[in-house]
Design brief:
Layout: E1 3-7, E2 10-13, E3 18-25, E4 32-40, E5 43-51, E6 58-60, E7 68-73, E8 78-83, E9 92-100, E10 108-109, E11 113-118
Length: about 120
Amino acid sequence: QIQLVESGGGLVQAGGSLRLSCAASTRTFNNYVMGWFRPAPGQDREFLVSITYTPPDTAGGDSVKGRSTITRDNDKKMVYLQVSDLQPEDTAVYYCAARPSTLSTYTSWGQGTQVTVSS
């Protein structure tokens, strides 16, 4: 069982950056791969980036490739997404998600944090 709470969204001008945070509540944080998603046309939620427990291997989709960094603090049970060079098309609700390392499907989701990018 894992509960997730995102924070850090807000209004930013184009070209700016944001750091989103995800606080996890669980006794077994080491069992989870953590990821970030956002809605996209034609998709329920678009995969952005993920990170394993240890070693912290990362994987990412094309939408924020080259301008995003995902990190995790296992002691604090936190996951962070830093996105730079934000553009209006990045406006969305960003969701933190978790999947057991033995599964390929994300099973737990946060409530999302709104990111709005003004031009």
